[in-house]
User: Fold these one by one.
Assistant:
Number 1:
Amino acid sequence: MLFRFLKPYNICFSVCLLPLFGIVFDMIFDNLGPDPVQALHIRLGDWSLRMLWLTLFITPIQKITLWQGMAQYRKLLGLYTFFYASLHVVVYLWLDQGLAWGAIATDIIESSYIWFGVLAFLIVLALAITTPKAMVKLLGKNWKKLHRNIYIASIAVIIHYYWQLKGNMAEPLFYLIILVILLGFRLAVWFKNRKFTKMMIPTTRKIKVVKLDSSVNQTLAGQSKTIVIEEVDTEAET
Ligand code: HEM
C-alpha cells in the first residue's frame, strides 16, 4: 500500500502541498508576524511564483533528458501555480480588502503593479481551465498557442513582483535571472528549429519513416518504391 503511494508523481503532489501546511501551521500557532494578513498574502504570492518557475523548468529538462514522462509534472505544477495564485487573490479580496468592491476597484486602478498581477492571474486561470484532456481535444492546435501565454504570465508576474517591492532586491533578482535563463533557453530552441534550420538548409525537412509498404520488398529491384512517411513536428513544446 505504502509502496504504491510512493510513486514520483504522488511524492511531487504531496511536496507541493507542504508550503500550504507550513502556512496553516504558522496561522494556527500565531507565527505569521505583526501583520498576519500581509504575511499570508506575500507567502502565497511567493509560492505561486515558485510553482510557475518550476513549471517553466519542465520543458528544458524534457529537452535535455528526452524523458517524455515529464508532461504530467508540467500539468501538476501548472495547476499548483493556479492553486496558490487563487489563494493569494482570495486573501487579497477577502482578508485584506474585506470584499469592499468599491475599494478593491480603486486599489486596482491606482496600483499599476496589481494590473500585472491580474493579467498573470487571468492567463493562469485560462491555462488551468483548459488543462483537462477534453479541453485539449476541443481546442486542437489552438491549445498549444494558448498555453504559450505562460511566458507572458511569467513576465507579468516578475513585473508585478518588482513593482510593489520596497526593500531587499536580492530575491526578486534571483527569480529574474532564472526567468531570463529559462526564456533564453526556449528562444534558442525556437531559433534553432524555426529560423536557423530554414536559413541554413532550406531544402531539408525532417521526416520519420513510419512503415514500409508490403510491396516494397518485392519492388525494390524494380522502378517504383512506396513508403509511408510522416513529418516530424520540430516545434518546441511549451
Ligand atoms: C499568477 C498571479 C499572481 C502571482 C504569481 C502573484 C505573486 C505575487 C508576489 C510574488 C508578490 C510579492 C510577495 C513578496 O513581496 O515577496 C505579490 C504581491 C502582491 N500581490 Fe500578487 N500575484 C498574482 C496575482 C495577484 C492579483 C490578481 C492580485 C490582486 C488582485 C495581487 C495582489 C498583490 C498585492 C496587493 C501584493 C502586495 C502584497 C503586500 O506587499 O502587501 N496579486 N504577488
Number 2:
Amino acid sequence: MKAPAYYNAVAGVLAIDVLAMLVALPVAFPSTGSTATATSTSGQTSYMNLTIAFNATTGWPQYSPANFSVPQGRVVFTITDQDSVANWTGCPCTVQGTVNGVETINGTPYSTVPTSNVAHTFSIPALGLNVVSPGLSLVSFTMDVTKAGTYSWFCMDPCGTDPGGFSGGPMSAPGYMSGTMTVS
Ligand SMILES: [Cu+2]
C-alpha cells in the first residue's frame, strides 16, 4: 500500500529533525557531561545553555554542564529546569547581577521571582549574581562578564537530602548544585 503524500512529507521532516538532533546533541551535551565551552556566534555575545535534570544514577537534580567556560563579554544564559515546582518562603528571590536586573521565566521578565515556585538558584557571589530557577520552567538572563577568572557558582535553595536541605545529596556532591564558570 502506498503511503499518502502527507505521510511522506511528515516522515521527511521528521527524518531531517532527527538528523539535526544527532548533529546538535553532541554539541549541547558533550560526552564528558560536566564540562563545556560556550560558543560565540555573533561578535561579543555568546550563549550558554544549562539544564537541570535528574541524574539517572542518583536521582538527584543536577545542573549540566556544571563546569563551563565563557568568553569575556555579554553572555546570554538559559536554564531549562526539569525539576518540580516547589514553594520556598525563605527565598532570596531578588534577581541580581544580570543586565537590567531581570531574568525571564517562560518569556516574562521578573526582577523579583515569586516564592511560590523556586526549585533552584544559580548564584555567583563573586560576581554579585543571583538568578532563581522555578521548577518546570525556561529561565533566560543576560550577563556582562568583564573580568577573566574562575568563579564558583552554587544553588542556594535547600534542595539537599539532609534535614533542612542545605546539605546532603546534590548540595554536597560537586557537579550537581555547584561548579565553576571560567571566564577567559
Ligand atoms: Cu538546588
Number 3:
Amino acid sequence: MTADGAAADGASADDAADPVAASAADRPWMRAARAAGLLDDDGTARPTIFAEMSALAAEHGAINLGQGFPDDGAPAAVLEAAVAAIEAGVNQYPPGRGIADLRHAIAEHQQRFYGLHLDPEREVLVTAGATEALAASILALAGPGDDVVTLEPFYDAYAAVTGLAGARHVTIPLSEPGFQPTAAAIDAAITARTRVIVLNSPHNPTGSMLAPEHVDRIVALAARHDAVIVSDEVYEHLVYDGRRHVPVAIHPGAAERTLTISSAAKTFAVTGWKIGWVTGPAALIDAVIGVKQWLTYVNGAPFQGAVATGLRMPDDTFAAVRATLQHRRDLLAAGLVEAGFSISPTAGSYFIVAEPPAAFGLGDAASSARALAADPGVVSIPLSAFGRPGGPVSPTALRFAFCKPEASIAEAARRLQQYRG
Ligand SMILES: Cc1ncc(COP(=O)(O)O)c(C=O)c1O
C-alpha cells in the first residue's frame, strides 16, 4: 500500500472478479501491520516489540522496564468494588454506552479536576480501554484520502489503526530539548486533508507534556480545516514536580471538536481490566458509537462500577499515586545517569528516554535493547519502535518504564552500573 491508502490501484481484472483475491495484496490486517512497521517482506507479521521484549525478559530472567504495566496493586477500594460486583451478579452485558454510574463518575471527574461540564447521557462513552476508544474514533472519522496527524514518536496503535482505516499517517516531529514540536512542523502537517489530529500529553514514549502554545496553534489549525482532535490523556494523573494536566478540550475553541480519551489502566494500575472512555460533543460520540458497537459492543460490567469508585476517590489518593511514581522516576533517572546514560527529563507518564553511554559499545536501539536484556538483564524498549524509518526519532535511544517496584528499579540500576559493555 502507498502511504495515502491507494493500495487498490494495483488490483488486476482477475482480482476484481474474486473479492478474496482482490484484497490479497493489501488486506486490512496487512495495512495495520505495515503501518506499525511489523510486516515482513514475505507478508508475515512480526510480534510487537513489547511482546518480543517481554518474552526476552522471561527468557533471561531480566528486570522488565519495557512494557508500561505497573506491578503494584490497585487501590483496595477499587478491587473490593469489583469483587463485590461479581458476587452481586453484575456479570451480564452492560448498556451500550456503559453503566450509568460510571458515566456519571467520569463526568464528575472531568468537572472536579478540570471544570469541564459533560452530559453523562450523551457526551460520555465507556470503551474497552483507551485502545478501543482510539480505534473507534479514528475508524469512525478517517478513511482513504484523509490524513491522520500524530506527534512522532507516537504510540504504536495510532499508526496501526490509521493504516487499518486506509488513511495517510502524517506526523509532527517532537524534538529535543523537551520533545516539543516546532510551529513550522505543526503548520506543515495540518492541512485541508487532515481529518483527525491525535494528541497525547503526557506523552508516551517521551514523558513530555505539550506546551500550551502548541496546543493553541493545533486547535486553531483544526478549526480552520474542520478536523477533529482526538486527545489521548491516559497519563492525566501521572504528572510530576507540581505540574498540572490541562486537557486539550479546555483550550479556547477546542471543546466543540475534541474527543478526550482516558482509561482506568494507568491511574488505578488495572491495565488488564480494559476500562476506558471517550468524552466530547454528542454528535462526535454518536459517530464513535457507530463503530464501537460493532467492535466489542460492551465490556467489563463488574469492573465499570469499580472504576466509578476509583474516579470518586479523594484528591489525596490521586496525589499519592503521583508521589509514588515521581519518586520512582527520580530513582530510575539517578540510576541511569550513574550508569552513564544521558536522559531526557520526564514531566509525566511512566517513561524515561535515555541514550546509552558510548562506552557500552552498543549498536542501534533494537540491538542494544536485545543485548541489555540478555546481559546485564534489564529490558527496555527501543525508541525507534515509536517512529518510522528515516523519521525524527533517535536511532539509539531506549525507553525505560518506572512503574515498577523500587527494588526492581534499584536492581536494574545496579546491573546497568556494573555493565561495561
Ligand atoms: C498513550 C497510550 N494510549 C493508550 C494506551 C492504552 O490504554 P488501555 O490499556 O486503556 O487500552 C496506552 C497504554 O500503554 C498508552 O500508553
Number 4:
Amino acid sequence: MIEKMPFTYKRSKGLISNKDIFKTKVGKLPKDFPKYPSRGWTIPKIVKIAIIFLRIGISQRKIRRMYQQEMKQPPTEIPSAPAEFWNEVREKARSLGIGILGFTEIEENFLFSDDRITHIKNFYSNCIMLGMEMEYNAMDVAPNPPASVETLRVYAALGEATIVLTQFIQEKGFRAFGTHPMEGPILLPAMAVKAKLGKIGTQGILISKEFGPRQRLSAISINISPVPESPNVLPRIVDFCEKCRLCITECPVDAIYEMPILQSDGRLTRIDADKCFPYFRKTHGCSICISVCPFHKKGPILMENIKDGL
Ligand code: SF4
Ligand code: SF4
C-alpha cells in the first residue's frame, strides 16, 4: 500500500562533529601518559588485525557507494510496510548476528552537518538502529589486545551485516541506505536511545539490557513509514551511574568528568574526547570504561534489579 504524502529528506540541524580529534598524533603523547599494556601482540594477532582493517575498508567504501547510488533518483513517496516485512527484517538481522534492533524517526538534532568522509547529507524519515555484541571474555581484559581485536572485529562484522540487511530491504522493494559503525553523520548512541535500545551511561556509551555497554552500533535509513513501536521499558541507568562512578575513577587519562562539559563541537558530554582519543588510538580501542562497568560484569541481573527501582 502506498501512502501519498510529500517526500522530504531529513537533514542535520547543524550539529558539528569534533573532527579535530582525528588529527591527534599518537606520537605526540605527553611523557607521563599511562603506559600501554601491549602484552600479547603476537604475529597471528597482527595479521588478524590487518585482515579486519581490510574488511572494514571494503565495507566502508561499499556503504558510501550505496548512498551515492540511492541519491541518484530520490523517491517521491513514502510507502508503508506490512507487519510480516518487519518480522522478516528482524529475522534476517538475527541471522546476521545483530543482537539488538530498534526503529525510530530520524532526529535531525542527532545528525552531524559536516561529515566530509562519507558525504552523507540526506536521510530518509526513519531508521533502523542495529547493535552487535562484543564478546564478554575479550572485552573483560581491555585494554589488552584481545579487546582491541574484538572491537575491530565487530566494527567489520557489523559493517558487513549492515550492507546485507540494507540489500535485503532493497530487494523487498523499499528504498534504504546504511551508515557504517565506524563513520558517518549519525550520533549513533543518541539515535539508539531514541529507538529505545538502551540509555547512555556516564562513559558516554549506550548501555542496553541485552549486553550492557558491550555493543557497537550502526544504522539503516529507510524510506518507509510508519515504523513499529518499541515496547522496550528502559531501566534507570542514570540513577545507578550516579552511585557507581567506576568508569570515572578507572579511566587512565581522566577523560570522564563528574559533571558534563561543553565540548568544542557544542555538545554537552562528560567525555573529554581530546584526552580519550589519543589513548583510544594508542591502545587500538582502550575500552577500560566498558570492562569495569557493572553492566558489563553482571548485565541482566543488574538490569532486573534496576527495573524494580534500585
Ligand atoms: S561504570 Fe558505573 S558510572 Fe560508569 S557507565 Fe558503568 S554503571 Fe555508569
Ligand atoms: S575509552 Fe579509555 S581513555 Fe577513553 S574514556 Fe574510556 S577508559 Fe577513558
